[in-house]
Amino acid sequence: MRPILMKGHERPLTFLKYNRDGDLLFSCAKDHTPTVWFADNGERLGTYRGHNGAVWCCDVSRDSARLITGSADQSAKLWDVQTGTQLFTFNFDSPARSVDFSVGDKLAVITTDPFMGLPSAIHVKRISKDPSDQVGESVLTLKGPQGRINRAVWGPLNRTIISAGEDAVIRIWDVETGKILKESDKEVGHKKGITSLQKSVDGSHFITGSLDKSAKLWDIRTLTLIKNYTTERPVNAVTMSPLLNHVVLGGGQDASAVTTTDHRAGKFEAKFYDKILQQEIGGVKGHFGPINALAFNPDGKSFSSGGEDGYVRLHHFDHDYFNIKI
Amino acid sequence: MRVPIMADVTSMGEITAIAARIGVELSQIDLDSIHLPPGEDCGIPSDDDDLMEEDPLEFDAGFGNILVVDNLPVVPKEKFEKLEGVVRKIYSQLGVIKEDGLWMPVDPETQKTLGYCFIEYNTPQEAELSKEKTHGYKLDRSHIFAVNMFDDIEKFLKVPDEWAPPEIKPYVPGENLQQWLTDEKARDQFVIRAGNDTEVLWNDARQLKPELVYKRSFWTESFVQWSPLGTYLATVHRQGAAIWGGATTFNRLMRYAHPQVKLIDFSPGERYLVTYSSHEPSNPRDTHRVVLNIFDVRTGKVMRDFKGSADEFAVGGTGGVTGVSWPVFRWSGGKEDKYFARIGKNVISVYETETFSLIDKKSIKVENVMDFSWSPADPILALFVPECGNQPARVSLVQIPSKEELRQKNLFSVSDCKMYWQSNGDYLAVKVDRYTKTKKSTYTGFELFRIKERDIPIEVLELDNKNDKIIAFAWEPKGHRFAVIHGDNPRPDISFYSVRSGTNTGRVSKLTTLKGKQANALYWSPGGRFLILAGLKGFNGQLEFFDVDELETMASAEHFMATDVEWDPTGRYVATSVTSVHEMENGFNIWSFNGKLLYRILKDHFFQYLWRPRPPSFLSKEKEEEIAKNLKRYSKKYEAEDQDVSLQLSEQDREKRKKLKEEWEAWINEWKRLHEEEKMEREKLRDGEASDEEEEYEAKEVEVEEIINVTEEIIPFEESQQ
């Protein structure tokens, strides 16, 4: 498996997202410019210019027409995927960390960081079909958790929102009432900040990665802990194969400690685990900085990783991968 | 004293009124300049009165600083002053006696002294010290001082006059403290300390994982240590040390009170335990005071204690804890624990454990002695005395208890010596660093003593390149070979020598030299033959498993950042660990003797890894040889067992996997059901798009025809002629 090295960003990668058809790959980085690539050969298709700060997260609509991005410039922007034009800007008073379209793409959840005394918050915005009707008002704003919320996604049928962040607690919010329905158990839950969260394709379960060197698999409705994957490094990114029972963890030591230790100490590997047996299957090396983002192609035949080193590595699996037995 | 103007005494308004009345311009008065006559407060209470009061002196309520000296001569009035003078002279050397602190009572009838006196010192510490030093002091033949603390008198008074026979308790058989040796799978135990937890585990190499025996949080306050034969696990606490052991679990067997204990050391036969503490002196110019206790391990009784300043214990040797090199007391080899010794200024003090006093009541006088070590097997001391004036440096072997010198070797222009005993005490290698002629640099050679041969022959060994620096030296346990790492970093060489190779029994011969290895430490297997060349610290944990019989490398491996390597007591497995000197990678690896990684455990804040030692085997040498010869026959049984285990293991594994798969299947089905239930609503959310692609996905071929261009052209028709 020879990876395709996609060099287009000048700063560390923050997020990767495939569209539903799996032909486009969207990448976000700290260099202000989200980029779209052909997911097949890694050719750069275009960029979305307009943000004035690190871009933390993005999501693409089901029909691959709209892109939403959240940035440290205290805004989230809606883009036309095809033309790259800005359609709308949601302005906030603090950096936007995470964005996620709802089922049906009529709503979006955006989280904002604690900033200058403001607490962190989760905002729900209505997304109009016609961009000229778009308004900036929030339908709902949720506040409460301490510290940064690193990720918030929609639950089944847009009835709930699942959030996770620095306080290591996963929360399920009721969208109707704005109340917390469930919180993850302190005993079994993560011990340190949660860095990433990803839903399964059918939205029935999700996986979280944490600085406590573990990733955990949860039921999205009951918030039951199903699986636990432990590794040797803080986990920055997690993803699940849509095809096989595999999960991938990416991470590495804190970027600030990289220069002081041997390159082997970093273990900047994307590690594959058997989803059911919770055993390590293998790893994909290559990055020379911690892995910040991981995404699986919806067909499950390729995946990409984005690192602190500014590269996106696109891996098409060998034939052997599909016959791994443990 | 400043006059405080307090709002609750006089308000500012009143003051202005008074000022106006007596015609004083308030603004021109500097209030701070007003002073009251000393000792006069004009009835105004000062708010800083309480600050002026000095703290009352604290008086010691007890009489801890008073000594009672008994067995003084009984003298008439005329000689009273003389006796008092003598006593004062003796006791004022050891501390400051208080004014009127010496009181010798006199019988009012006979005007004679009563044969005792009281001495009051400034501090209890001085009294304590004097008591130690003068108890048993011989003034003359018939007057041996009996010195006691005044505080203790009450205690002595309570001793009943009638002797009562001690109650005889019925004998209760104790637990088998060596139960772990009878493990059916012949596994070994080890203890690890990580975070606040201390765990004792079985090394279950067949199952490729450890099995927990006992776990306890906050078991020890600093470290744990096995006794040399593995019977006890010692823990260290603020109040003292404790030992733990038992057949199935770990119970506390004994406690040894020693406040602030820092270090502990067992005698090799684990009969005695030496504990050490050093205490901050009250006067910062004084050196630390150290206290050493020697306990009987089984009874918990203090057999002897040593107290003194750190200086007294810091002679000879180098480094150690605040100048004291540990262990202070070194035990002679063998299970008997008969002798122990410590080095002092120009002396070696050898004690015997029967009486816990010096052999012949005298230390061995050796001018300038620097270092000494016991043979691991016999009561033989090896001493090193450096050069001094015209005297050459020398290494000598001294037999104990006769104190007879067995052998001596003079050495010239020596800068330092290190002694290495082979584990059976058969050989002694002395590494000698000598100055070159210019005295600017040193080179190294070895002096090899064959202890067990007649007259103890000595042989000099120099390396091929004698300027090479020696990085490490190690004897093969129970064997006749040794390995040396020499040369310069980063790629030193390793040489193997034998003192008894096949054809050449009387001479040292070199077996081989490995060039340019990344190693800085040597770890022989306790069974001999196998050796790990380890590159710790700067070499990031390179490991090379070497077979010295075949002179070949069995495996090369790496345990990144490894700090410690330890063989299990049988020589079957090796543990390498990364302790918390590093922040990353903490944990340990278990390897087979030939370098196969068996399993790996990661633990944050990993402090200690220690194999539980085994006592020496009871098999005779002949029996051992017989077993080695017929190994095939014996091993058959175990091979069959191994096979059973691996079958059982895969069976268990299959079971476990099956269960996990079933559980997962249940989740999947549940999710599918819910997904199906919600299908309609999801469609509605997507504006009626029949959307769940995994079910509805259908490839349609769509033909699109587009007319790009239409052109008309007239083609002339010509009828062909037939």
From TrEMBL, chain A:
Protein name per Swiss-Prot or TrEMBL: Eukaryotic translation initiation factor 3 subunit I
Keywords annotated in UniProt: Cytoplasm, Initiation factor, Protein biosynthesis, Repeat, WD repeat
CDD domains on file: WD40
UniProt xrefs under InterPro entries: eIF3i, WD40/YVTN_repeat-like_dom_sf, WD40_PAC1, WD40_repeat_CS, WD40_repeat_dom_sf, WD40_rpt
PROSITE patterns: WD_REPEATS_1 (PS00678), WD_REPEATS_2 (PS50082), WD_REPEATS_REGION (PS50294)
Chief subcellular location: cytoplasm
Any single GO BP term: formation of cytoplasmic translation initiation complex
Gene3D superfamilies associated with the record: YVTN repeat-like/Quinoprotein amine dehydrogenase
GO cellular component term, pick one: eukaryotic 43S preinitiation complex
Subcellular location: Cytoplasm
WD repeats: 6-47, 48-89, 142-183, 187-228, 284-314
Superkingdom field: Eukaryota
From TrEMBL, chain B:
Identification of the protein by name: Eukaryotic translation initiation factor 3 subunit B-like
Source organism (scientific name): Nicotiana tabacum (Common tobacco)
Source species taxonomy: Eukaryota, Viridiplantae, Streptophyta, Embryophyta, Tracheophyta
